[in-house]
Amino acid sequence: MVSFWFKGKELAFALGIAITFPELGNALNSWLTPQIVPGTLGTPLLVSVFFCLISLGCAFLAVYYDKKA
After folding, report:
1. 20-42 pLDDT, tens per residue?
2. pTM attached to this predicted model
3. For residue 45, which of 37, 55, 54, 35 has the smallest C-alpha distance?
4. Are the C-beta atoms of 2 and 67 separated by less than 8 Å?
5. Dist CA 13 CA 16 (whole Å)
């Protein structure tokens, strides 16, 4: 999808951003999870499900805008 939206020099930048955001999410997860663990894994699981639902919504939005364009 990225290659259809960006051409030339912008394509390399867009792919770099697309690779960077999952790595930042991984780093945030590694930092945040130990801080919200109260002894059980229930709270971190619910937080991660919440972020997965937000991500799913963003994916649906991206598909909608891609079809619209």
Report:
1. 988 998 898 888 877 777 677 77
2. 0.56
3. 37
4. no
5. 5
Residue 67 tokens, joined: 């079809």
Answer whether residue 53 shows pLDDT above 90: yes
Q: Which amino acid is at 66?
A: D
Tokens 């960006």, residue? 6
Tokens found for residue 44: 């971190």
Looking at every residue in the chain, the average pLDDT score rounds to 84
Matching residue, tokens 């894994």: 41
CA separation for the pair 68, 35 (Å, rounded): 41
Closest CA to 53 of 43, 65, 41, 61: 61
